[in-house]
Structures are given as structure tokens and as C-alpha cells.
Amino acid sequence: MRKVIFSIVLLILSFIYFPASAQKSVYYDPPQETYRQAMESFRQQNYGAAAPLFERYMAENDNPHDAFYENAAYYYTVSNVALGNKNALQQVEHFVTDYPESAWLPKVYFELGKLYFKSRKYTETLEAFSKTSPEKLTREQQPEYYYKKGYSELSLNEFDEAAASFSQILDSKSSYGPAANFYYGHIQYQKGNYDEALMSFKTIENNKKFNKYVPYYILHIYFERGNYQQVIAEGSSYLQKADRKIKGEVNRLIANAYYELGDYENALSYFEDYERMGAKNLGSDEHYRIGYTKFRNKQYNAAITNFQKASETQSDNTQNAWYNLGFCYLYTHQKKFAQNAFLNAYREETYPEITADALYNYVKLTIELGGDMYNDPVTIVKEYIETNNGSEKISNAYELLGQLYLASNNYEAALASLEQSGQMNPELQAIYQEIAFTSAVSEFNKGNYEQAMTNFDKATKFSADPEVKLNALFWKAEGLYRNKDYEGALKLYKAFISTPGSSGSEFYAAALYNFAYTYFNQKNYWQAITYFKKFLQTNSTKRELVSDATLRLADSYFILKKFDEASALYDRVIQNNAKDADYALYQRAFCYGAKGNFNSKISSLTTLSQRYKKSYLYDDALYEIASTYVIQNDPRHAIIYFDKLVKEKPQSNLAKKSLLKLGFIYYNNNQNEKAISTLKQVVDKYPASTEAREALSTLQSIYMDKGAIDEYFAYANKLDFVQVSTGEQDSLVFTTGENQYINGNCREAVPKLENYLQQFPQGGFVLKTFYYLSDCYEKMGDEEKALKYNLEIIGFPDNPYTAGALLKAARIEYDREEFDPAKKHYQHLADIAEDKGMLVEALDGSMRCSYYTADYRNAIAYAQLLIESGTADDNQRVYARYISAKSYQSMGNTDKAIEAFEQVEQGSADEMGAEAKYELCLSAFRKGQTDQSEALIYELSENYSDYPYWVAKGFILLADIYVQRGNTFQAEQTLQSIIDNFEGDDLRQVAQEKLNQLKSQN
Predict the structure, then answer these.
(1) pLDDT, tens digit, 9 for 90 and up, residues 204-232
(2) Which residues lie closer than 8 Å to 617 by C-beta, 6 or more apart?
(3) Residue 500: DSSP 8-state
(4) Segment 359-377, tens digit of pLDDT
(5) Which end of the chain, N or C, is less surrounded by CB atoms within 10 Å?
(6) Which 8-state DSSP code applies to residue 102?
(7) What domains are defined for the chain?
(8) Using CA atoms, how far apart are residues 372 and 381, in angstroms rounded to an integer?
(9) Burial 583-612 (b: 16+ CB within 10 A, else e)
(10) How far is CA 905 from CA 281, 754, 773, 833, in A?
């Protein structure tokens, strides 16, 4: 900056002190008169007239050794010099050669130096001046001599010599005095001699030639001295008259003065003026000061650019620049960039306090963002601990390390590291407990109960965190309960409940609930009643648990034949319209029936059938209503409900029983033709079933009553599964195989059962034989034959084994990726399944197979049925929405797909959620909503850091957003980070192609 101003001033002054020249015409007179006229013109400084007269005289006086001739030669040379003639230098050199002993030589060398000076030949100037001395020059010539000598020395960087020369004429009244003061002041300023410099500058601060520049030097001296108020006061006034080229620098000086005073508000306006005036080539320190001023004025976005520039060059402020850049990013919600900036600030290690605080902020952001894609924060903190062992900050570092371990999923490594650290103070003990507990819960939820138990034990190793220790006790009990170790579970639940303070635990109610359930599963119903009651007294807000506990409490009373108590509890569930209210209605009906109140039983079952037509108990309710009417000897109503069941639920296992009972009712009421017709339906629809054989037996009785036994034999002999003459042999052969199956001896059972099929391919026990064989082959691991016999069962009309066979066949086909037959069987199962779990699996399988066979409409339909089933768990519902989203996407219905992806993202923390989040980012980008897309990308990075593929895709999309905004620098940085750090070649290639394209456009 100093050199810039000096260069400007030097250029201006060069025009002031290098005057132009003129030339006049020559005339002739006799020698003496000519000489006289020449001298007269010379004295009048009319060099244009004098030079030709002196030249004429020398031509007329042909005696070079004559004194007048020598004088004329001297004056002729001086005149040419004064006129600036082209041959002046040559004339001077000739004079020196011709008159080496002349008394005029000192003045001639002076003139020679002036000529070299005019040509900016400063070395030659000083050589010429060295051959003369000020004492041999006139008083008028001396200031010029010192000035031009000093200037030449200054131009040759001989600063001390220049200062000595200029100092000779600082008080001179000549025209050279002001310039000498200026240059002398400049030299002293450059050397840091501010008092000397200020004295010279003050001398000429009002000089018209220098008053535009000198005040700047004076301001700079005030600044270097720390007189910031004086800089501000005089600088503000100077701005009004300063040269345009210097105004920006004056603004910079004033801004820095305010900066040093800590007045960042006023500093900002002057820095802004400085930048507006085209500040260029700023150093890192200047960028830092401007950035920090903007930062203190909360102009965080504006400060980012300056801090970025300041961080590019290594200096004392590099660490500060990264550190404050981190906060700028943080305050502008760019947490990923903030994380990286704090890490860079930590790595600079210039100032220990900032190093420690930068590490703290980096770790906090890493935990908040769910990790660092490109660095291992655990390793970074460990390195800090190793380097700063013994520092007062070391305990904070261990705390950060613990928090990182807790936030990571590598719990085992975290525990091992803490165990090896030897730094298990109470704070770290608490962290150790929390990590062990969190790890145990994670393993527990994965079903890894053995590992979970080990870590629950570790969580109880210390007592630094009593709450964690108590919670670990609860989860250990849970693990034993899941493994059906009810005795062990009871002991731990009891220990948990009896621990002081346990009633305040978030798991207290759950412990009572599970404690009660354990007793219930052990059939210790009185104890179950005690703890179910205690659970209900906690007023838990979990409605499903409250409903379930109420039902199990009622069931306990029911089993103990306390029907009034049971009925009241079932009624509570019914009145609250809680989950499983259909079950409560069903059980309450049996309470009424047990007490002989058949009308109330029928009423309760009727309510169930009317309110819950989709209930898995709907067909049971119809069957019990009809059966109760039979008990009440009301065949008319019994017929209505048995018939209703057969027509509405033909796939139900109770349909054949209902049809059989209809036949019995008709037979018992002497409606033999209806009985025959109905019983034949049982035989035709359900051949080879127990009900079919009962129907045949009753038909035989009817035909015998009619005296038409031949008609019965004619009918029976047409049936494939009936061989009247060999019935006993059929039964005997089957029984030998069945006995082996019942005894669990499949290897002995299989050949006997297959022998039965060979002897009696249409036998009465064929269906049951298929079931036994399918089950045995499944247990023996022969998937192919298990599938074969399940398909045989499916080939029969729906029967008691159909649902199981469909499920097993579909599972095998799905695992083999034979999705078309699997879909067919899952869909069939979805129509007939009565068990809730089986229905959910059927819907789930139908959905998946439909999707995999590009049957997207059915995939969406089954996904919706699964969501609405009421029995699917959270993961199944999320996956159903995911399949819906992907199906809508494949069908080109973007709006519906995005709606489904939004639901997936809200309910999933795994890779489905990551993919859904990315799709939301992409959708917002395609709609031109770049701000929203950017915010979603950062959420993707924060919430799904365990899925780097989708995070990397998000950042590639972020680079596209930066390009749209014109921020190619950040776009390039983002793409480069993916290229440098992401491990997948596919996305790295995408990023590289985009980066190459950007660079080719710049």
C-alpha cells in the first residue's frame, strides 16, 4: 500500500521537475559584438538567442585556447543544456574532453548530471555529480543539486544517502524544498522514524502540489502510533479532498481505526466504502478484519467470503478465520460447512483455547448431524487427548469422546475403548453405563438377546447413573421374558419394582404389565390379577396396553370362572371402543352363556357381527349365535345364522361345520329332502373331510329311514374318497403312518404315508396324509417335496389345511423369487386367513409379489389393505407406504409417489427413509423450490448419515442448486468432496463429470 501511493506521487512530481525547452533563430555580428550580444542574452536567460551567438563567435575566433573561446564554449554548452537540445549531452562531453583543466568543469559536470537526470539515467547522474561539489556551484544551483542527487539515490534504493541529500534543503525556500521534504518524509516513514517523517510532512501539508497526498501519510503515521481517534477525526475531513485513487485507502485506514477501537458498527461503513471503491488484492489479514467486522454486525453471509479468503493463506489469523467461518455457517444454517470449518480451525493449532473450542463445536455438530462422512471424529478426539494429556481441557475431551461413542453405532468398540482408557471417573462411568445400555437395547431390538444381556450387565456395573442401572434391570427382565424364562423374569421384574424410586421410571408401568403377563403365561391367574390391577392404577397413557391389560385381567377372571368380574371388564373395553373390542364382545357373550343368560349372549354376539363385519371373529360370532339358538331349541333362527355364515364366509373353517349343522337341523325337524340336499353339499364341497364323513353317516341314516339304502350306496360309490368295501383297510394303513407322525418320528412316518397314497390314491384320509407329509418334509429340510404336498392340499377345495399350505407354499416360492405363483397363493390366503398374523403376512406377500411382477395397481391395493389391517406393525406399515411410493413412481404418478414418500420418511430411520428423503429433495428441486430442496438435503445429511449413498446423491443435487444460484465455487467444492471421500465409483463418476463440465465453462 505504501509503495502504491509513493509511485502515484512520484509520477506526478516527475512532470513538475522536468521542464520543457524552446529554441530561437541565430543571427551574425562581428566577433566582439557577437560575444557581447551572446553574454547579454545568456544573462537574460535567453538561451535560444545566446547559443547560436556563442557558436558564431567560436566559428569567427579560430583559437580554441583563447580564454574567450573557452568561455564561449562553456556558455554555448550550458545554453544547449538549458534549451534541452538533442546534442546537449554531446556538447557537454566534448567540453569535458576539450578542457579537462577548465575552471568551468564543476559547473559543466553539474550540467552533465542534470542532462542524465532528465533522461532518468540516475547512475550516470550521480557519477557526474560526484565530479563537482555544492561549494563550486552558485547558491541558486545548490538546491537543484541536492534535490536531483537525492532523487537519483532514492530511485536507486540508496535510502540513507537520499535522506542525507534531501536533508540539506529541507528549509530551502527554493522550488525544490517542498519535494525534498516529501521524499525525506517518505524515507523516514518507510524506516519507521515517524517523528522525523511527520515533521517533514507537516511542513508541506498545505502545499498545493502535495496536499492531496501528504495527509494520507500523516494519517498512516497516526495509525501506526495508535492515535486512532486522530485518524478518524482528520481522516473524515481529508476524505472530502483526497484524490480518487487514495480515497479507498483513506476509508481503509479509518475503518481499521474504528476496528482497533472495537467500534465495529462504524468500521463496517468505511470497510464497505473501501470495498465499493474497488479494493483489490487484499491480504489475508485485511480479509480477516473485514470479515470479522461483518461478523460482529451479524452480516454472516457477507462475512463468509472474507473469512474464506483469509483462510486460504497461512497467517496468525488463519485459525481465527476458520473458527469464525464455522460460526457464520452455523448461524446461516449450513451445518455441514460449519462442521468442516471447525475441524479446520482445530487442525491449525495456533491458539490452544480456540483449538479446544473448535474441537468441541466440531464434535457437537458431528453428533447432531449423525457423523462425519469424510473424517473419523473418534480418532480426531483421541489424537487431541494424546497430544494434550495433562491439559485442563482433557476431561472435556474425554466427555466429548464419550458423547461420540454414544452417538455412534459401534457400541462394542466404544465400550472397549473406555475400558482401556484408564480414565473412568464418575462422568465417564455414567457415559459407559449409557453406552452399554443403549447398545444392549439395540441388540435386544434386533433379537440378539445374549449380547443384549451381556451389555445390560455392563450397564449395571457402575452406579454413577442410577436411572440407567435401574432401566437395565428392567430390560434384562424383558430379555428373560422373551426367552420364556418366566421364573428368571419374575425375579428381575420384582427386583425392579421394589427398587426405591422405580415408580418414577418410564418403565415402571411396563414392568408391572410384563410382571402380570408373566404370571398370566404361567397360569398363575390370581397373581396376574394383582399386577394387572396395579398396572391399570398407574393411569398409563398407552391406550393399547391399557386395553390389553384390561382384557387379560378379564380373561384371568373368566378362566377362574369369575364371570361377573370378567364381564364388567370386557364391558369397559367395549364402552371405550378400544382395540380388540370385538374380542371383548365375544368373551362377554361367553360370560353370559356360562351363567345361562343366552339372550344376553346372543345380543352381545349380534352387536359384534353388526359392528365388526371385518373382524376375524365375525364368522365365530355367527356360528355361536346359531349354536345358541340350537340350545334354545329355536331352529328357525339357528338356520338363519348358519345359512348367513355359509353364504358370507364360504372360505371359513366354520362354513362346513355350519352347513353340516344345517343338515342336522333339517333332519331333526323331519325336513329330510332339505337335509339330504344340505348334507350332499357338505360332501361335494368338502370331500375327504371329517364333516363329509359325518354327513355321509347321516345320509345313510336318512336313506335307511326312507328304505332307500340302495340309493345311498349308488351315491356313495360315485365319490372318489369313499371306498365302502375297503374302508377298514384304508383306515388301518393310514393309522400306521399317522401314529409315527404323532410320535414325532417323521422318517418312519413318511414311507408309510406315501405307501398309503399308493394303495388308496382316492382314500378317505388323503388330505390329512398330504398335510402330514408336507409337515414332515419341511422338518426334514426337503423344500421341494414340502412344496409338492402343500400344492396337493391347495388343489382340494378349501379345508382346515388350506391356509397353512398356502402360506408355506408362498414362502418357498417367494424365497426362490418365483413371484407369480407366490403372488397367487398369497392372494388366496388373504381371502381366507382367519388368524391376524397370517392375514398380515398374506397381505404383505401379495403386495411384494405384485410389485416385483410390475403389477403396480395390485401392489398399491394390497399395501393399503396392509396399512388398514390394524395388525401390521410400524415397520410393515412403513414398507407398505414405500412400495406404494415406488409403484406410483413406476406408473408416472409423481404427486401420489411424493405423498407416499413423505409418509415413509416420517416413519423410517433406515435406508428406506434415506431414499424417501432424497426423493423429496429431488421433487422440490424439480419444482424450482431450491431453498426447500437445500434444507431437505441438509436434513438428509443430518438424519441419514449411516446411508452415505443417498447423502452423496443429495450433495450432488446440492451442487446443482449452487450452479443454479451462480455459486460455482461452492458447487465445485461440494463435487470435489464427493470425489475425494465417497467410496462408490458410480456416484464419484457422476460428480467428476459434473465437475469437469463446470470447469470447462469457467
Answers:
(1) 988 988 888 899 999 999 999 999 999 99
(2) 582, 583, 586, 608
(3) T
(4) 999 999 988 887 776 677 8
(5) C
(6) -
(7) 22-83 (no CATH), 727-930 (1.25.40.10), 931-1002 (1.25.40.10)
(8) 13
(9) bbbbbbbbbbbeeebbebbbbbbbbbbeeb
(10) 48, 53, 45, 31
